Amino acid sequence: MSDLRELYQEVIMDHNRSPRNCGPLEGASHKAEGFNPLCGDQLQLYLYVNDDSIIEKVRFEGKGCAISTASASIMTETLHGRSVDEANRYFQAFCALATGEREGLDQDLDLGKLEVLNGVREYPARVKCATLAWHTLQAALRGDKTPIKTE
Amino acid sequence: MNHLMGAPELPGVAAGLALDVDSIRGDFPVLQQQVHGHPLVYLDSGASAQKPEAVIQVMADYYCKDHANVHRGVHTLSQRATDRYEGVRGKVRDFIHAGSTNEIVYVRGTTEAINLVASSYGQAFVGPKDEVLVTEMEHHSNIVPWQLLCERTNATLKVVPIDDRGELILDRYREILNERTRIVAITQVSNALGTINPVHDMITMAHDVGAVVLVDGAQAVPHMSVDVTDLDCDFYAFSGHKLYGPTGIGVLYGRESLLNAMPPWQGGGEMITKVRFEGSEYNELPYKFEAGTPDIAGVVGLGAAIDYVAGLGLDLINEYEQQLLAHATARAAEQSGMRVIGTASDKAAILSFELEGIHPHDIGTVLDHEGIAVRTGHHCAMPVMEHFGVPATVRASLGLYNTRAEIDRLFEGIDKAQELFGQ
Predict the structure, then answer these.
(1) What is the ipTM of this complex?
(2) Rounded to 5 degrees, what are φ and ψ at B21?
(3) Domain containing A72 — which CATH number?
(4) What residues make up the domain containing B139?
(5) What is the DSSP pairing of strand B235-239 with strand B212-216?
(6) I want to staple B371 with a disulfide (CB 3.0 to 4.6 A). Which of A109, B12, B38, B260 is the partner?
(7) pTM above 0.95, yes or no
(8) 3-class SS of residue B127
(9) What distance in Å separates the CA atoms of residue B423 and residue B421, rounded to the nearest whole number?
(10) Residues of chain B found within 8 Å of residue A8, distances taken between Cβ atoms
(11) Which of A8, A39, A122 to mutate to test the interface with B (most CBs of B within 10 A)?
């Protein structure tokens, strides 16, 4: 069970039990739906981006496994108050972290709590759970109308 | 000894006519391994069953000694390959109790068999205002080909609902059937729920309104003896790989009169007798539906798989698996926080479930760490998941090589998942 704890770290379990910024967002400027057909995970992501391209508010709702729920929850905390450009840098860095491609990591970026999800790189089948919220973020920022799928 | 045609040995039948599962397990090389430091417990046979040595060896033997293209050459190897290929057709006929080898068409698997019928029979005999009937418990491969057919022909797809135990509501079936129903496509055993459907009676009812019936037997043939003549079905589809045979090979049984009336599906070599640019003449059954070079080694492997299960005896396999299912169901009833999805009175050895507060995908990862392989997800049966209001389930699907001790290991793994997630 010890190595399972590296995947399911306490921070992940906590965010799974009590996801932050969970629920709809009135007056969202961007929204998108993400769906992982393989495991049935789905989430709606809502953003309020102001005129200076700062993400003032970000919330999500949906059903998913512990990894996808915790990842979405930690993502909302990370993005709060960041610029769209910074969000895109975090997206790149997080995907690199989750897939274990360390050379893709942005050395100047402090990933902070996102680091707890680095255990998924040992679980190829679960990488998509961790990145679902982030791909949905990209879809929301692009203004995609159709749900994105991680398959 | 000719591995293909020789009399089946009975490796796993102990005296007193019960399966000798220890001996059977020895026939499956893949089971002799550890996963994450634990002996592998393979509970995903519903997705694809493991292969006995006999299947693996017979395919290697075929490639080592007899491979050439079938029905093509006068040379010795081509004749041997053809003999092996056609010999298995006879085994399949006997295995499902069909009347003739003309009714046995080799395909890639159940999905291709259903697509063949939907395209060929459907295109010729289904028109606007006609109805095609499926059930709510169908696998996607017995839904989507019919949806495509209905889109092409402007026919209507009708769906027989299920109840909360996962049984078909037969009164609704009776009501939905009518003289516009052209095709009824039903699974014999639900892959997601384990429900065994009363297909014999459903076929009679469909014939009463003049409809033809395709039975999806993918989940049935590994668990029970199938008699297409007794069922009186018009089409029956199954895959080799769920029957302990190789992937990439399957069978479509079709009633000879219907196959004769159907237009060819794919064109190419083998399915013709004469090709001219003014028009070609099609081959006789079953070759009319077997365009191109087939999966000869796959057919040879399928023959060995049929020998293997028929040698053990499907009645004994069924009896043994039912004991395993009863044990698993009893353990499930005692497990706190567990909800079994699919509680039909007549079930094959499939236990689909969810655990309170833990997503199936997380359960799957924890179980994998214990060396236990289960399927998690929607099992390609999203309408079923929707009916039960779950995005996914965990499914343990049993095979003839599983044991009570392995089911106990599954429940120990479930305990660990609940402990980890504080449930």
Answers:
(1) 0.89
(2) -70, -30
(3) 3.90.1010.10
(4) 60-310
(5) parallel
(6) B38
(7) no
(8) coil
(9) 6
(10) 362, 420
(11) A39
